[in-house]
Amino acid sequence: MLTPAQKKVRQEMEELQINGQLRHSVAKVPPVMRHTEPKKRVKRGFFGPLLILSLIILVIYQFYTKESTEKAISYLSELQTINGQSDQMFNQDPRKINLNTLAIQQAIESHEDLLLKVKDLQTPSNFKNHKRDFINMLEQRGIILSYLATASTDTSTLNKYLLELKIKQELQRDSLALALENAKIEYEQVRDGTISYWFNDKAFQYK
Predict the structure, then answer these.
(1) Residue 181 lies in a domain
(2) Is 47 helix (H, G, I), strand (E, B) or coil?
(3) How many structural domains comprise the chain?
(4) pLDDT tens, N- to C-terminus, the chain (207 residues)
């Protein structure tokens, strides 16, 4: 039999052993590894370069678009000048031109020079079809001038050539409108065929 004092000592020893085991068990529990913060750092590290790359691409695109538009405006300015010079040769009804004057021969030579200038023009990619239609129109004008220079002309044949010229003039205007649209240049076409377009708050006209 244990005395009351011995029982108390034994009870205290048992309690100390239990507490020691609990502390030992808790010490053996491995710490929980949390990966939340590293993931956040990974995301920030990924989106930073992506944002910079997007800004670089945007700047390059804006520069290319502006440069491309400036080339288109320069091309149209040259074409407008050539068209005006060519059109002056038709500022009166070709059927009323005096066939015996030297003016027609000079007009033919001048018109051939204009045609060569157009063919040598550097053309923006969106305006290649328009340039083709513009050349077709100039060539038709040249055909009419050459026909007028012949010794004999027939009214029905001349009217046929003039009708073909009218169609080709309309085709090149429609082609220009489509080219402006593809180049994302603001424009407006009125009933008489005149096309107005804008760039850098400046207005231009193509007749």
Answers:
(1) yes
(2) helix
(3) 1
(4) 556 666 665 676 666 566 555 455 444 545 555 555 555 554 555 566 655 555 555 444 443 454 678 899 999 999 999 999 998 876 655 555 554 456 778 888 999 999 999 999 999 999 999 999 999 999 999 999 888 888 677 889 989 999 999 999 999 999 999 999 999 999 999 888 899 999 888 888 887
Closest C-alpha to 187, from 92, 88, 103, 76: 76
> Within a domain: residue 190?
yes
Reading the block at residue 160, the tokens are 């046929």
Q: Are 148 and 94 in contact (CB under 8 A)?
A: yes
Which ranges of the chain would DSSP assign to H, the alpha helix?
Answer: 4-28, 36-88, 103-120, 128-148, 155-182
What are the φ and ψ backbone dihedral angles of 190, each rounded to 5 degrees? -100, 175
Do 204 and 197 contact (CB within 8 A), yes or no? Answer: yes
Domain range for residue 118? 75-206
CB contact at 8 A, 120 and 165: no
DSSP assignment letter at 203: E
Q: Residue 44 is which amino acid?
A: R
Residue 184 maps to a domain? yes
Question: What's the CA gap between 39 and 62, in Å, rounded?
Answer: 35
Work out the burial of residue 50: count CB atoms within 10 Å of its CB; fewer than 13 is exposed, 13-18 middle, 19 or more buried. exposed
With respect to residue 140, please indicate whether it lies within any of the assigned structural domains: yes
Any idea how long the chain is?
Answer: 207
